[in-house]
Q: What sequence folds into this?
């Protein structure tokens, strides 16, 4: 059943433009790919740099064949990488594919020349890095020749290839010296302009202005007592601007005379004092007590995850929807910070994966800021492949590890 499925997959790939065009690829070779992928190629114990280089090159082609067969489902191209891997194990001299054999020219020719010259000069000193560079070049021209059907962006593969060429021993030529400075003659001095003698104009005679005498304005003082009601037993003084009341007691005196006959006159005086009480002003009623309002219970999550395609950092429609949800939760919680961390899988070098993880984190941070979140509230960082969601070996593509994690910090 596996053989029939492989024949159907290979036949379908032959009909698609850009697939199955690698030199040495064949339908019959696809039946030998599976045993090649199961080979255990040693990594140490070699007696010469040449053996180290051949074994490293075979491992690189085994990895490319596995990606082509298992991930890209392109068993015909996998057979081309298999043939190169077996040839390396036999100790044969492996040459990179010339661009013309894949219908390429221009920049591909300059990359080919750089790869050939660097590997020929340095394979004995840096065998592992040079083997990695040769395999990456073949992968680069494969993706470049497939055009719109490529599974990986050729620019991404080229960036990793240039990095490995540097490790192999490629030296970048120093920049050309700057051109000599251009000496500009100073401009001629400006002409001497002789100013004409000043014209003296006699000042006009002074104008005598007669002072205007205005009659003083009589200001009547403001009577503050006119704005209040003065009781009959009080006097008001409003000179200070505020009405000041001075009130007297109202005293009623009642005199009762008692006369006894005969005898002297007896007078008994009864005095009653009545004090007019001040008016009582009722205090204003207290304000009503505030009704406590229960705080809304937030149910939005504090963590969000955004996934990316292989070697990509552009945002899909699903990613933008997750960013919208994270921004809404950030505002609902009134949180002070949002941690944005980029991650990659283990495919590629750590330095390249660090840059790719940073690009993914920057893309998410830019989308969050464009939705009105202050940049000072965003803490952006990159963990490369050091914090995987799924633990894998080195050089393994894993979709769940190609992500950016968002955490809302309260």
A:
């Amino acid at each position: 059943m596996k053989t029939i499925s492989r024949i159907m997959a290979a036949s379908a790939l032959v009909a698609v433009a850009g697939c199955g065009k690698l030199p040495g690829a064949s339908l019959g070779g696809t039946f030998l790919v599976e045993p090649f992928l199961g080979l255990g190629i040693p990594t140490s114990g070699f007696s010469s740099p040449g053996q180290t280089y051949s074994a490293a090159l075979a491992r690189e082609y085994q990895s490319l064949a596995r990606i082509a067969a298992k991930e890209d489902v392109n068993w015909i191209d996998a057979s081309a990488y298999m043939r190169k891997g077996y040839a390396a194990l036999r100790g044969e001299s492996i040459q990179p594919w010339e661009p013309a054999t894949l219908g390429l020219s221009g920049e591909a020719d300059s990359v080919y020349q750089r790869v050939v010259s660097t590997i020929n000069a340095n394979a004995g000193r840096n065998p592992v890095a040079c083997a990695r560079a040769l395999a990456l070049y073949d992968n680069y021209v494969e993706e470049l020749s497939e055009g719109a059907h490529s599974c990986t962006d050729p620019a991404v593969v080229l960036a990793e290839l240039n990095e490995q060429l540097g490790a192999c021993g490629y030296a970048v030529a120093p920049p050309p010296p700057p051109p000599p400075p251009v000496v500009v003659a100073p401009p001629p001095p400006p002409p001497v302009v002789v100013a004409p003698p000043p014209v003296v104009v006699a000042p006009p005679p002074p104008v005598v202005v007669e002072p205007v005498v205005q009659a003083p304005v009589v200001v009547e003082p403001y009577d503050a007592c006119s704005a209040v009601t003065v009781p009959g037993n009080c006097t008001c003084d409003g000179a200070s601007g505020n009405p000041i009341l001075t009130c007297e007691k109202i005293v009623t005196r009642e005199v009762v005379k008692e006369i006894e006959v005969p005898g002297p006159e007896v007078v008994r005086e009864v005095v009653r004092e009545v004090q007019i009480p001040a008016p009582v002003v009722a205090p204003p009623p207290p304000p009503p007590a505030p009704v406590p309002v229960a705080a809304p219970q937030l149910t939005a999550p504090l963590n969000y995850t955004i996934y990316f395609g292989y070697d990509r950092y552009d945002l899909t429609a699903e990613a933008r929807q997750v960013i919208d949800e994270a921004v809404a939760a950030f505002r609902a919680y009134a949180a002070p910070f949002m941690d944005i961390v980029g991650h990659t899988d283990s495919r590629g070098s750590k330095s390249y994966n660090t840059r790719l993880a940073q690009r993914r984190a920057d893309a998410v941070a830019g989308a969050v800021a464009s939705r009105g979140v202050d940049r000072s509230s965003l803490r952006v960082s990159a963990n490369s492949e050091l914090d995987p969601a799924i633990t894998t070996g080195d050089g393994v593509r894993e979709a769940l590890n190609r992500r950016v994690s968002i955490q809302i910090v309260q």
